[in-house]
Amino acid sequence: MGDDLGDEWWAHEDASEAEEETQEKQPTEKPSTQTQPEKRKRVTENTLKAKKKKKNDQKECIIPQKKETEDEKSTKPKKKRKKKKKTITDVLSSSEPKPGCSADLQNLVTQYFSDKRSVIEQEELKLLDSCFLSSNDLTHTLSSYLKQVCPKWAKIQKQHTEMSSVVLLIVCSSALRTIELIKQLTAFKGGAKAIKLFAKHIKIEEQVKLLQKGVTHIGVGTPGRINALIEKEGLNLKALRYMVLDWNWRDQKLRRMVDIPEVKLDFMKLLESGVLNGCKEDKVKIGLF
Predict the structure, then answer these.
(1) CA nearest to 242, candidates 266, 275, 268
(2) Residue 190 burial (CB < 10 Å; 0-12/13-18/19+)?
(3) Which residues pair with 126 in a beta bridge?
(4) Number of alpha carbons in the 13 Å side-chain half-sphere of residue 196
(5) Which terminal Cβ of the chain has fewer Cβ within 10 Å, N or C?
(6) Vertex 184: Cα angle to 179 and 190 (nearest 5)
(7) How far apart are CA 277 and CA 287, in angstroms?
(8) How far is it, in rounded angstroms, from Cα 52 to Cα 146?
């Protein structure tokens, strides 16, 4: 007991208390070191989950928009392409040319005057078959056709003495075509005099003087210039016996004379100026070349 008492007992107590304090501190410090990385992991996991959710939400928001646009496209009416109107050239290029006949001219006249004349006046415009010459079947040249329809041309030519008038009037669509037709007349006309009746490069006064100078047998030209000469009294239809229409010829656009609006209008005016009356009186005959 004496030995024990000699020891410093208070020192042992202090040491034991210090050990107990350290033991108590250690377990409290260890969990604090363990919880920090766990928190970081949780934070990173939470942020990743939040980003994924945002992406998913964005995707979910974008997908229905695409569907809406597709639905809108499907519901929108599709614009129909306008069909191009077929022109005369389109129709004629796919079809074979057919020779004109007297019925074609008669239909053209009735159609043109249908809204301009009364029913009674339209009946008066109708021409008999006897008013027409035989039509070209697309095998003739101009000279061969005229020889067929005017077999007594030599006699008719000699009998003609009327100034400012022609016996044969050939109506075509242009100045160039007029020149071509005059060249084709050489085998038919013989000693007959032919005159060009078109507006290009020729003044109307010059043509009036030429018609008044001497006897002219054949006139070849456009309906516009022929009408102008009739109005100025430079040309009359007193001696006219044959009017031949350049009906079957077509230009570069495959248009006939009556397919060109301005030429058609002038031609109808020419028919009204005295040709139709001459046909009814059996003085004038019309041929479709």
Answers:
(1) 275
(2) exposed
(3) none
(4) 18
(5) N
(6) 115
(7) 16
(8) 97
